[in-house]
Amino acid sequence: MSKGPASDAAKFRNNPKLIAKYLNDALATDDAASTTRAIGNLARAHGMGAIAEVANVDRAGLYRSLRGDADPKFSTILKVLTALGIKLEAKPGGRLVEIGLKAKGKRVIHSTCGEQKE
Prior knowledge:
By secondary structure, this protein is mainly alpha-helical. Helix content is 47%, strand content 3%. It has a domain at 6-83.
């Protein structure tokens, strides 16, 4: 993912597939600040005022929230992504995490694939 200014993101402006790739690259860093900056770059490339209006959020607050050094509300992120024409979608991540939960009958539930073992 490019860490350049918003002008670097401008090439993604009217291409939802490239926008999604840009955001997926940012998400792959597992760094919230990097992902927030990427969303901010895209919002600036599309025009922060227009994105704020469509997302029904304050423009000045949106600039502050999407700098990368703030922790914006998840609802704000969802509104901005919707305004950008992007839908969040969950998919398996490839990393398996085993969480053992003990309940009555000492059943252990493995969260990775829903298997239940006694």
